[in-house]
Amino acid sequence: xxxxxxxxxxxxxxxxxxxxxxxxxxxxxxxxxxxxxxxxxxxxxxxxxxxxxxxxxxxxxxxxxxxxxxxxxxxxxxxxxxxxxxxxxxxxxxxxxxxxxxxxxxxxxxxxxxxxxxxxxxxxxxxxxxxxxxxxxxxxxxxxxxxxxxxxxxxxxxxxxxxxxxxxxxxxxxxxxxxxxxxxxxxxxxxxxxxxxxxxxxxxxxxxxxxxxxxxxxxxxxxxxxxxxxxxxxxxxxxxxxxxxxxxxxxxxxxxxxxxxxxxxxxxxxx
Amino acid sequence: xxxxxxxxxxxxxxxxxxxxxxxxxxxxxxxxxxxxxxxxxxxxxxxxxxxxxxxxxxxxxxxxxxxxxxxxxxxxxxxxxxxxxxxxxxxxxxxxxxxxxxxxxxxxxxxxxxxxxxxxxxxxxxxxxxxxxxxxxxxxxxxxxxxxxxxxxxxxxxxxxxxxxxxxxxxxxxxxxxxxxxxxxxxxxxxxxxxxxxxxxxxxxxxxxxxxxxxxxxxxxxxxxxxxxxxxxxxxxxxxxxxxxxxxxxxxxxxxxxxxxxxxxxxxxxxxxxxxxxxxxxxxxxxxxxxxxxxxxxxxxxxxxxxxxxxxxxxxxxxxxxxxxxxxxxxxxxxxxxxxxxxxxxxxxxxxxxxxxxxxxxxxxxxxxxxxxxxxxxxxxxxxxxxxxxxxxxxxxxxxxxxxxxxxxxxxxxxxxxxxxxxxxxxxxxxxxxxxxxxxxxxxxxxxxxxxxxxxxxxxxxxxxxxxxxxxxxxxxxxxxxxxxxxxxxxxxxxxxxxxxxxxxxxxxxxxxxxxxxxxxxxxxxxxxxxxxxxxxxxxxxxxxxxxxxxxxxxxxxxxxxxxxxxxxxxxxx
Lengths: 271, 574
Fold this sequence. Notes:
The structure holds two protein chains of two kinds.
Chain A (H helix, E strand, L loop, with lengths): L1 H22 L6 H18 L3 E2 L4 H6 L5 E2 L1 E7 L6 H15 L5 E4 L7 H6 L7 E4 L6 H10 L5 E5 L8 H5 L1 H13 L5 H15 L2 E7 L12 E9 L2 E9 L7 E5 L14
Parallel strand pairs in A: 3-7, 3-8, 4-5, 4-6, 6-7
Antiparallel strand pairs in A: 1-2, 8-9, 9-10
Helix pairs in contact in A: 1-2, 6-9
Chain B lengths: L5 E5 L3 H12 L10 H7 L4 E6 L19 E2 L1 H5 L8 H7 L4 E6 H15 L5 E5 L4 E5 L16 H14 L5 E5 L2 H10 L13 E4 L5 H5 L11 H9 L5 H6 L2 H8 L3 H8 L17 E10 L2 H22 L1 E12 L1 H4 L3 H6 L3 E4 L2 E14 L2 H13 L7 E13 L13 H17 L4 E6 L9 E4 L32 E10 L7 E7 L3 H4 L3 E9 L4 E7 H6 L15 E7 L2
Parallel strand pairs in B: 2-4, 7-8
Antiparallel strand pairs in B: 1-6, 1-7, 2-3, 5-6, 9-13, 10-12, 10-13, 11-12, 14-15, 16-20, 17-18, 18-19, 19-20
């Protein structure tokens, strides 16, 4: 149904272009006009691709439009540990494989991103910029990254760890900083930040993923284009529910196998 | 010298421009945006310049006396019949409103050096002369790079671009291209434009076709030749006013009159010039300095000065064909006010005393390299906006400490340029200033099998670690990998924390490492485990606490089975 709608839209665009060409005193012949119009629509369709497939069949089948849309999307998980990192890495891998010159950025204030795991997910480490700002600087630097027009994907560890989270237990400094961050609230409001990111993403065509903690209380929901609620039911599966989608296609929930995520195959022996 | 082409850039008003700039804003900067006519009208009256030579009696305006001779005068002064060489007293007798300013010789030298360095972008060699206030560039074989349909040879376009470059630096100039340096300089300085210019600010440029040097200089006055005043006067007395008339004189008689200098002068008037260019050798580190007449106390004024420095530095970098990867900005502080604020100064970032002169040196690493003025200024603004000045600033210097050659590459008409390549250097340079080297970079696999050492952060543009392993000695059949076939965690915590294991938990062995860096950690093996932690709903990655403790000892306990009641969580397979 979605494909039919997009085809109808493309056909209408083609017909309008042909009508304009026929109406004008164009030096091209009518057949050349049709060919030119077809090519224009084709380029328009390819250049403004709305969603990117993750090459993770079960997840692609779940997502509306078969992939992540442009703009800001949110991946919620309890304690930030519901398989959201794997989903973000899959998106980066897909973008890297499509365009050999595409770059991605990851904002990792707690410095937890692990290179072997990222490389195992098939991500090209040479084209992944890792930014490790202090929590207080994250909003400003996130907007700067989004406005730079340099990245196709930006992943942001949006929420600081709660004191009860596993990350916080291992990093007492982070817990103190998180408490300061929550208490002072001198930074921009999260909703305002997300809107700024959305505006930047619309201008640049980037996809921004926010990894948030489902256990964190918020005064207002984040104004994102897509929200997925993720949780690990067991070590082999992730349960994903579409909590928000820009066209209202919400409520769909599915459990997908964790092992089917795209991974790099190491053929030669280690060492 | 057939086949060679030289461009001469003559700055006829250099001293006046420097004096006007010092009058206008005290920085010695000639504003490129200022309309010269508007500026001239704003600064009323004639102007004369005395050059301050090192060790001379005149160093500042306070040293001027009535018998001090003028080195240069403005057009307004010439209109009032005030000429260079006159004393101040006689000049002021003609016009009491005459303003006399002192310009240090090093200011002239610095300006010409800057121009010579910028000119390296147009030719292979440049040279300068302080006495003649001129710069030469050897453009042999370079003009065709600027050719187009309107100008097949490219020389006119080259001169036009050079003139634009000089004007950007804030100077009026006259430019000529000829087969020999002196011919070009003579035509540039004394050449007459046939038609009036539409734009008074446009640079005058002259093209002497190849082999037509003799004809080109024929119309020039004898003053253009490097002759002493006595010889020029003698030529005038005998009715020889132009070089063309001089070319008609019998060579033997002329040689007798010219004496030792006959040979080079006769060759010159015949259109031959064998004078070699003394090449200008730019300093190792490009540096731009502005000395201020009064101390700056506000960051806004400092940024204004920094903008000028960035413009000048960008021109030098383009001339050299390099990007800057590390930039230093040095602020010379007012010594008199330092002593009263010594504690604040010592605590200030980058404060140092060089030869007793207090100053602040701020270092800015620029990953990827930058060269554009606006990018350099954006970084300086980031650095200086929040910087607290410990004392008034009397001088500002910008030094390009490290540079890398610009790697030019062709663009494809049909494939758009990667947006990251253009945006990343500037973005990363700005973030480096804010976050430091440990705050931005890319991940790389460490050269170790210890989990805590396998993830490192390196500069984003550093080459892949494979680059260091290629070459002689590498195994031909393949290279060692740092990637493991085992499941890897995607998140690692900085400090592992223990969790008790009960009977219902089922830890799963992912891999085992033994004798890794045995000289530090012993021969004991370490089992890397994954375990599902139901209360958290997460798959943990870690190792047994006992094994981790055992690795600290140089005792082999492989015969004993260690107790595994506690898991040390190091990360998450998320």
